[in-house]
Every structure is written in structure tokens, then in C-alpha cells.
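Regression report. Comparing outputs from two consecutive submissions.

Submission 1:
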Amino acid sequence: MRAHIKKHRFIFILALFALLTLIINQFPFLIEKYYSTGLYPWISRISRFFLGWIPFSVGDIVYAAAALYIIVKIIGFFVRWKKRRLNRPLLLRYGRKILQALMIVYISFNWLWGFNYNRLGSAWQMQLKFEKYTTEQLIQLTDTLTHRLIAMDAEAGSRNTYNGPKQLGDESIKGYDVAASKFSFLAYINRSVKPEILYNGGNYLGFLGYFNPFTSEAQLNTTIPKILLPAVCCHEMAHQLGYASESEANFVGYLACKESKESAFKYSVYYDMFSYAINDLYQRDTSLAIKRIEALPQRIRDERKLVRTFFRGFKNPFRPFIDWMYDKYLKANSQPKGRESYNEVVGWMIAYANKYGWGQI
């Protein structure tokens, strides 16, 4: 019995730690106080400090290596199965190793970042009051964003000012610095913003950018239309600060991006927020949404068409499955609306306007 316990000690310890992790996820206030604003900022800053200077994504390399390892192991399993070399002890060993790997990934994911999915977040930090918003409030938000978008369109001129992740990251930090002067919890240090190694592969997968929870790196898909890049960059940096939900990362990214002194940055985030608002309005009053779009300056309408055309060019038969998997991932991490969670930023914007005034949008 003692030998059996000693043999399986590691998996028992992992199981206990996984159970502890699961229990902690049930207490948002404790996560907010001791993890999201206590332990996590140090984990993230240290990781960005050591990895931020590397010009390529270390996380992408880790993912690629892990994928290759899994493929090799799967091939090895089927080779053994074909040669009839599988037996009960070997299958049990395979099962134990898979269980160990899954628990290690689960524990690492949560302690390195994943607990943030269950924090109280910026709504609690800003004391924002979320209520079911009316169509009239949605129209007011849409019109406010339209005015900002048109004003920034007149100022921005070229949309191609920022070409590389370093420039985008540097300018995004300036926006976060200004935002942090109003909300101290938005302070950002140790930049780690990098291009995706996949290049156009990200377009086929439907990724504008993504955050690696294991290395705290923010990856940008630099092949997308440039008007989108500043908003995407600030969004991924919001994830680095511990704002895990997509709607909250959209909102925090907006708070930083709009504070940039660069008109192209402001145009990017107002374009992004307008897109969410007009989509919401389209669901409630299609004819009114169409009228709002038709009233936009021709250049903005042309850019909307350009963006849609760009992404249509990367449609593929695997995309529905990828979207389904991502939807399930979001739902499994406290975002019940799945992929539609991104659009919930509309509610954040209205709650923010109700507290701080529509002039602050």
C-alpha cells in the first residue's frame, strides 16, 4: 500500500492542488484582493520583463513544441495499437500521464492568469452600475461614437502611421499612462507586444491578436487592416493587466486607446466601438442602423467595406469548427455568451457614460 501511494504521490498532489484551484475560483472577492491586484501583477510584470525584449513570441514556440510533442505521442500510440503492443498496464500509464498533463495545464493556466476570469474587475474598481440599457441609450451611444469617429477621421489623415508591434506598443503605453492618471489600476510597465508567428495563418483562424496566459505576451496579427491595429493592441495589453473577459478587455483597451495623443489611435478605437454599437443597434432597429451607416462620410464607409472584404478573403471550411471551439472556451471561462461576449462592451460604455457623463465617451 505504501509503495502504491509513493508511486502515485505526484498525481495525488496535483489532484489536491487542482481541487484547491477549483475552490478558489468560486470566490471573486478573494481573487480580486489577493490575486488580481496582489500576486498576478508581479507574475505578469516579471514574465514581461524577462520575455519582452525577445523579438519573437516565446509562447508561440512553446505552443508549437507542445503540438509537435502531442502529435508524436499520438502517432506512437497508434503504431503500438497497430502492432498489438498495447496492454492494460500500458493503457493505464497513458491515462495517468494524460491526466497529469491536463491537471498541470489547468493549474498553470489559472495561477499564471486564469483566475482573472472570476475577478470582480474594473466594474467593481470603478463602481459602475450595470443595468439593462434601452434602445434610446443605445442610439445615444451610437450617435456619440459617430461624432467622435467623424472628428477623428478629419484629424487622423493617414491610417498607416504604425507598422510594427514595437511602435504600437510604445504608443499604447502612452495611452495607458494617461488612463492610469485617472484610474491607477491601469498602470502598465514592461511592454511585451509581438507579431504573430503565424502571419496570415491568424486570419484563417479568425484572430486579430491574442494573449498568451503562460508567458504574458501579447501577439498582434500585423496583416490585418492597419486601422484596426491600435485598438487590437490596447485590447491585448488589457489582458496583460489581468482583465480576462473579452468585453472588459475591449472596454479597458478603449479607455487607454482614446487617451493617445495620436489621432490615428483614437480613430481606431472609435471605429471599433462604433462597430459594436451599430451591430447592436442593427439587431434592435435595422432600418435605423442602416440610416446611421449611410450618413457616415464616404471614406469611413469605404473602410468598413474594405475590412469586410479583407476578412471574407480568408473564409475556409475549418473556420466554423474553430469558432465553435473558441465559443466553448469562452463559455467555460465565465463568459456565457461566448463569442458574442465581445459585443457586451456596449453595456460597459453606457454604464461608464451614465456615471462619468456622455462627454467622457
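Submission 2:
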Amino acid sequence: MRYVLGLDGGGTKTECVLLGEDGRIIVESRGGPANPNRVGFAGAAAAVRDAAAAAMRTAGVSADQVRALCAGLAGAANPDSAQKMKRLLEEEFPGIAIRICTDLDLTLKAVGEGAAIVLIAGTGSGAVGRDAHGQMARVGGYGYLLGDEGSAHHVGQRAMNAALRHFERTGLDTPLGKRILAETGEPSWAELQARVNAAPDDVFPRLFPVVVQAEASGDAAARRLLEECAAALGELVKDLVERLQLQTQRFLLARTGGMIGRSRYLDERLNEHLRKVAPFGQFAELTMHPAEAAARMAVELAVRA
């Protein structure tokens, strides 16, 4: 029996699906983050390799039984970046047909056919859409240096900035500031700043749950941060609605990513913003996991190879 591999790699983890030639999911596995903008190209390639190796090892499948691999990676939107990742993976998986796309591409395939927009809200943020004629467009997804508005990274960054500025003005910590220091285990803002300067991705996204917990406890500052987050994510969808001219056409509207379902307040506010900017959008769920969508794309690649 022959197999294909599909991988969904983001800023926090990589998920892998090993699919049989009969279309049956054989096994699923996980690896580390695979966004080359965050962990470097070598790190991203290693995460893909490790997740794929774990799946093959669990299933007892050898590399020569795998026909194709499709990896949808956050941070691979730039053609040069995608080509570099493909070369690295061709070295890791010689003789296997390989396709590199973005995690946004995977979600669009996973939502089904027809006009659709998928909003991703996780470590990073972005949205991808398709009109009824198959024309595609995307916004965001370029990493925190160029955007990621409304992402977990962005929320954590704004939370720490607000708490730190308050401490600088008053010499006192806000309730949210105290939560941040307790969660990170740092004794002072000086130590936490040094940690952020060394590895911002190890700090900011992990502060999102702290903000969620604070809001649930009635913290007004945390609530404002989540409101700003919902508005920023809504703007991504608004841009796509206008670009794809979906203002008066029905289309599927899906939300996915690690931030969705974590905060009742954020979910409610986000839905309100989405109804406002996309009045003809019909809320929908992904029909399959993005890693499975990648595996289905790998099947198509294997057929053409």
C-alpha cells in the first residue's frame, strides 16, 4: 500500500496526517512549530521531518512507501520562502513529490466548495477567501513584524506593553500585570523584558490565556484588549469581503485557530463584528482538519507526479 503525508505547520505546533491511497486516515501525529519566520527555515524543516517521522514510525510505514507530501506552513506565503522550504524538504524526503503552500490555503480547501472566507486566529492571524468563480485572495498571515493584528502574539504584546507602561508611570502593577509576572515566573519587569528581547515568541502568545482568564474574572483592561482583538480580526474579513466583492453574495464564513473557543467574550464580540462586516456570510465549520486537507492535496499531487 502507498501513502501520502499532509502537514499543517504554525507558530506553535505542526500537525501531520498519514493517509492511505484508499483515502483512509492511518495515523495522526504532532511536531514543534514550523513557521520559518519564527523558528527559521532549518527549524521549520526539522518540525515537518519530526512530525512526519513520528506518523510513519507509529504506522510502521517506510519512506519509500510515501508517494507525496504537502505542507501548509504559516510564513510560507512568499514564493522565495516556499521554494526554500521545498528544497529543504526535498533533502529530507528524497524521491517524494512535495508541495509547499500556506496554512491559509489548507483552511480554504477544508471549508468546502464555492464562495468562502476563512479567518485564522492563532499565534498569528490572517484570512483567505474565494469568490464564486474561484478567484482567491488573502490578507495577513505575514508574521508579527508585518502585522498579525488580533493574533495571540498581538494580544500578549499589547497586554504586556500596557502593564509595563502603567508600572513605569506609577511604580505599581495592575491586576493584569501581576497575572503576567506570575504566569511567566519572572520576578520583575526587567527580567521579563530581557526574556522578551531574547525570544518574543516564547512569551507573547502564551500571555493570551492570561488575558482570557483576567477578562473572565472581570478585569476591564483585559476586556478592552479582547475587544480590540475582535475588531482587528473583523477588519481582516472586511478587507476580503470588499476585495472579493462579496458584500451582497452569500458565502461560507469559517473561523479557526487556537484562539477560537477559548473565551466566550471574545467569541461573542468577534461574531458581532463579523456579522457587521460580512452580512451575507453564513457561519460554517471546516469540513476537515487542515492537516487532512493537506493530505488530500498530497493525493492530488501524487496523481500528477
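Expected: both submissions complete independently.
Actual: both completed, but the second showed a warning that disappeared on reload.
Relevant detail on submission 2: The radius of gyration is 20 Å.
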